[in-house]
What does this fold into?
Amino acid sequence: MSNRYVLFSFSLVAFQTLSQLQPLPQNRSAITPTIVEVVKEPTASIGMIQVALAAFGLTGVIMAGALVAGLLAGAAIIWFRRQRPVSTIEARGHEHNLFRA
It folds into this structure.
């Protein structure tokens, strides 16, 4: 496709679109804008100390949750490791044959 054909097709489509537009009526009334002012009620101001306490409170909750999760995971690992022997020597009742001649 050549550039002339694309340009001609585009101009033909634009002309058809523009020819289908209806003219605006001449007896239009002027649009009168309505201005609405939204007034918000004043809210209580929050100081820097309140913001810091809130941040430390959230951080404290997260740290407490991490501590509890860590303690539970540690207890589960210790319990699991005590349930079965760690080495073959422990599995034999602490009897080994390493130094037998």
